[in-house]
UniProtKB/TrEMBL annotation:
Protein's UniProt name: Polyketide cyclase
Superkingdom of source: Bacteria
Organism encoding this protein: Streptomyces malaysiense
Organism phylogeny: Bacteria, Bacillati, Actinomycetota, Actinomycetes, Kitasatosporales
Residue span(s) of domain SnoaL-like: 8-109
InterPro entries for this protein: NTF2-like_dom_sf, SnoaL-like
Amino acid sequence: MSDLTTTVTRYLDIWNEADADKRAAAIAELFTADAPYIDPLAAVEGREGFAAVVAGARDQFKGLSFELHGTVDAHHNQARFQWGLVTEAGAEPIAIGFDVLVADEAGKIKAVYGFLDKVPAA
């Protein structure tokens, strides 16, 4: 099994990548072709679906970034972790989520299930 903490870091890096081509290349490298991404706001399958969700979030939250909060808890081929959406590194998050990532035996992400713990005020 691959190091899932590294996989989580690479996953969060995708959310923070401004260049769409670099983001697409990272998604192609890290995700299986048919991986679902499901959270309270989206349910998509495949790399293009996930790329569209990330692009939408980047448009909605310009200038903000996602960072890991706490440690990655992993066993077998799955990891759970909390992330925060911040205005600058180490700042109080305006949004907090909890994701569960499932990897295949080669270490590629084959599913992500997300939950929102704190959402920005309207």
